[in-house]
Amino acid sequence: MRHRHPARLGTAVLALALTAVGCASSDGGSASDDKASGRETNVTSCGRKLSFDGPPERAVALDQSSTEVLLELGLEDRMAGTSNLKTKIAPEYKAAYDKVKVLSPKILTSEQLRAATPDFALGGFTDYFTKDRVGTREELADLDLPTFVSAVDCPEQNPAGAGKDAGKKAGEEPKSPFDLLFQDYEDLGRIFGVEKRAAKLVKDQRATLGKAAKTADKVKGEPSVVWLYSVYGDTPYVAGKSAIPSEMSRTVGAKNAFDDLDEDWPAVTWEQIAKRDPDFIVIGDLSERGKPGDSAADKLKAMRANPVMSKLAAVEKKRFVEIPGTEMDPSVRTVSALPRLTAGMKDLGYVR
């Protein structure tokens, strides 16, 4: 989700804070499985062209999603740090995660990024790269720090892919969010020289995606669903048309109740949710982030306390599916949400 809580560091501070970036030294082992040393690699990330003479050795991840993608690719020894933990690290990544320095449990600042002396920074959303956070991508490029943003956050710039498929005819339809996510894996595989690992990851996740898609043939009707990510104060944030949960809903034969809002995670009201009367609600658990309204328990409490929501059939009949909030973001765990979703729909009686 795109939360805007600026660290309010100016451009001048950023320039001072990152003077050491270009002086990064390696302290990690090699994770490359098929890259020839010294071979130049070129990719395009959200409209910005990146060139590498060799695999990065001190990568900094600006969010949990990016962290777990790198861990899945076996790149923990190439990481100078991680930040912005939203929920518990998946058990399969815990041992590798414990080897990586946590620069901040929250959103990283420019000073914290500088202290890590990175040679590569990546995040799931462009909103991490602002003047009052770690700095704009242009500012960081001027300091010789390449930055990578998930292709899912800029689908309009990826109609044919920014990696090996680049060069297809302009005007082609944008890829699906899952295709863009798989493109991230392939591009990061090329950048770090772990193409084989990335290819296996894409193959495995496409298989999981295909299995989930078969559920659509067994779904009764087209149940509507609200994906509840955050609650700030008394304001709920839900998945809009361009958020990846909309694609997950379509994959399993459901319909995102806010698919008409052309945003990722719009702020709505409880009254708007009640008016759309969803058949069930997916609740994201973001307990590790630690803000009021982040945990699944907090969200349930808020809905039951609201005089309009408490009378909603989905709330009265406890039609809820709970998943880790990070699985609602574009990440290596997004596909993991699909089996949880289909199992929950089956328990609620929507799957024959």
From TrEMBL:
Signal sequence segment: 1-26
Pfam families from the UniProt entry: Peripla_BP_2 (PF01497)
Residue span(s) of domain Fe/B12 periplasmic-binding: 58-352
Naturally occurring in which organism (per UniProt): Streptomyces aurantiacus JA 4570
Family statement drawn from the similarity comment of this UniProt entry: Belongs to the bacterial solute-binding protein 8 family.
Record region (Disordered): 26-50
Transmembrane segments: none
Keywords on record: Lipoprotein, Signal
Protein name as annotated: Putative ABC transporter substrate-binding lipoprotein YvrC
